[in-house]
Amino acid sequence: MTSALFQPIKLRELQLSNRIVVSPMCQYSATGGNPGDWHLIHLGQLALGGVGLLCIEATAVEAIGRITPACLGLYSDENESAFRRLLGALRHHADTPLAIQLAHAGRKASSHAPWDGGKLIAPEAGGWEPIAPSAVPFSPSEPPPRAMNAADLARVCEAFVQATLRAVRLGIDAIELHAAHGYLLHEFLSPLSNRRSDAYGGSLENRMRFPLEVFAAVRKVWPEAKPLGVRISASDWIEGGWDLAQSIEFARRLKALGCDWIDASSGGLAPGQKITLGPGYQVQFAEAIRKEAGIQTIAVGLITEPKQAEDIIASGRADMVALARGVLYEPHWAWRAAAELGGELSAPKQYWRAPPRGAEAIFRGAHVGQR
Fold first, then answer.
1. Element containing residue 175 per DSSP (H, E)
2. If I label 243, which of 124, 237, 314, 348 is the partner at 20 to 30 A Cα–Cα?
3. Smallest Cα–Cα separation from 258: which of 220, 288, 231?
4. Helix extents (H) in the chain
5. What percent of the chain has pLDDT over 70?
6. Among the CATH numbers 3.20.20.70, 3.40.50.720, 1.10.3720.10, 3.90.1300.10, which is that of 9-362?
């Protein structure tokens, strides 16, 4: 049997050895936006796990775009230098392609880490004033963000460009723009958070305008040979909010601008969401966008078992699958998938003796003598 999950896929000139992606996962462990030892340990174990692509967590393009004061950033020379040290170590020991998710938290910025409650941090307590398309708070109990003016729009768009240029210098293999989970670009898309009356609010065309401008500006400076994707929330799971039909149109417009994939997640815009959870509950979004917009998609959301992931790819519902919490719990999930599905992947020589008897063939080119 030839496993669909372990077939290679090419994104522009980037060749992935299989269809397994590690989702970007916020760690809330940076200092001044800089990655440190935690990121080396965290990303190091995931880079050795045999996946096709590893995406670094949401990384803010300006300081006030961080979700928490402890979130990653790529907006300063110090950030860039810290990333260079991290990436150098990862590349020395692993050949897994590395992507980064560039983001701006919008009205969800200046928050405590989840384990500290996740609530907004007031400026007098060390926080800052969040910005958003409109002065509509995430929660009714919080003060409203400041509505962005023309100067803010220009500055944030340029911040995405400058972060992209830093990613170019760092040799990052791929970029994903974060337009999901209630953060800034998603806030522009949803009519629940975007109440503007200018060219950036109201109609679907207007609400898509700023995210599309940001994408086009990033694509212009990102090397033609390197892929650029977008994560979206395909549904707000709230009546009258952003939905799948609008997501399909947004995906069509992104494809026309040179987008290489849609990472189809959902939710996160407001506390009133009503999500029906279950295994693979978001795969429907990846499937519909792939079919209707004709663009490659990544399926996410409670994909936990190798056979489940295999069926998603083999049936054409998505082109890749991404795991988050599943690989935190089991960093070598791809090894188990290869053993169960008859796949093959790369692994460090130091681990060649790891597979149980009968599963040795999962490691490409492995040969271990015995002393």
1. strand 174-179
2. 314
3. 220
4. 37-47, 77-93, 150-170, 184-189, 204-221, 244-256, 283-293, 306-314, 325-329, 333-341
5. 98
6. 3.20.20.70
- Give the three-class secondary structure for 107: helix
- CB neighbours of residue 116 within 10 Å: 12
Q: In whole angstroms, what is the distance from residue 45 CA to residue 291 CA?
A: 35
- DSSP helix/strand/coil, 322: strand
User: What token pair was written down for 8?
Assistant: 């290679």
Helices 204-221 and 150-170, packing angle to 10 deg? 30
Q: Which of 28, 183, 200, 351 is catalytic?
A: 183
* Residue 351 annotated to the active site: no
Lookup: tokens for 243: 């939905």
Which segments of the chain have a pLDDT < 50?
Answer: none
CA distances from 366 to 47, 61, 208, 352, 362 (A): 18, 41, 49, 6, 9
- 63 and 33 in contact (C-beta within 8 Å)? yes
Cα 90 from Cα 95, distance rounded (Å): 8
What is the C-alpha separation between 179 and 187, in angstroms, rounded?
Answer: 8
Model confidence pTM above 0.85: yes
- Is 167 in contact with 100 (CB distance < 8 Å)? yes
The pLDDT assigned to 356 comes to 87
Residues 6+ apart with CB under 8 A from 126: 69
Residue 74 and residue 65 in contact, taking contact as beta carbons nearer than 8 Å: no
CB atoms under 10 Å from CB of 96, counted, come to 23
Coil, helix or strand at residue 370:
coil
pLDDT tens, 43-66?
Answer: 999 999 999 999 999 999 999 999
- Domain boundaries in the chain? 9-362
How far CA 170 is from CA of 46, 51, 77, 280, 324, in Å, comes to 19, 21, 12, 34, 24
d(CA 33, CA 28): 10
